[in-house]
Amino acid sequence: MKAVLGELLVATSLLTATLKFAGDITVQLQGDGPMSLAVINGNNQQQMRGVARVQGEIPEDADLKTLVGNGYLVITISPEEGERYQGVVGLEGDTLAACLEDYFMRSEQLPTRLFIRTGEVDGQPAAGGMLLQVLPAQNAQSDDFDHLATLTETIKAEELFTPAGERSAVASVP
């Protein structure tokens, strides 16, 4: 359960980082599983809060489908000024990242890849992620996006968890 909640927090953080206005984004999972509701709300200042509703015993390593069951991903964008927008897609992917990629393709027709990792660093929970999107105003070639997404798939969790200034500048090549 910690992994899925960590993924939800990272995803919301990545999405709020794209806001170009004062307001907030709510990312919500709803379903018929033991975790029937999980919600993270974040604003354009990267302030986050969340809640989950859980019933019964849940294995520590439970995946998204086991936790939420049959359900939906709901994303609500609420600008301080202007109209609120809400998009809903079924939880058809095996991971939260796959479900979010599906959301962007269906609701915004925007090729998107999310790389979200959770784990531990020095015995403490850690999570990190990266969001790749084709900019709507750009006429990016699909091959370029696919190539970049393929390269990004090689990123290790430790690389996402470690701040850029703390990484070693030396790489070993076999």
In short:
The chain is α+β, with helices and mostly antiparallel strands and 174 residues long. The chain has 5 helices and 7 strands. The protein has one domain (1-161): Hsp33 domain (3-Layer(bab) Sandwich), CATH 3.55.30.
Account of the protein in words:
The protein has 174 residues and is of the alpha+beta class. The protein has one domain (1-161): Hsp33 domain. It contains 5 helices and 7 strands; from the N terminus they run αβββαββαββαα. The strands form 2 sheets. Strands 3-2-1-4-5 form a 5-stranded antiparallel beta sheet, with helices on one face. Strands 6-7 form a two-stranded antiparallel sheet. The protein is globular, with a radius of gyration of 17 Å. Mean pLDDT is 86; it is low at 167-174. It comes from Leclercia adecarboxylata. One of its GO terms (molecular function) is unfolded protein binding. InterPro entries: Heat_shock_Hsp33 (IPR000397), Heat_shock_Hsp33_N (IPR016153), Hsp33_helix_hairpin_bin_dom_sf (IPR023212).
* CATH level 1 class label: Alpha Beta
From the helix content, strand content and strand pairing, which structural class follows?
alpha+beta
Oligomer: single chain
The dominant shape is globular
> Tally the helices: what do you get?
5
Any idea what the CATH architecture is?
3-Layer(bab) Sandwich
Give descriptors for this structure.
globular; 28% helix; two-stranded antiparallel sheet; 174 residues; alpha+beta; 34% strand; Hsp33 domain; disordered C terminus
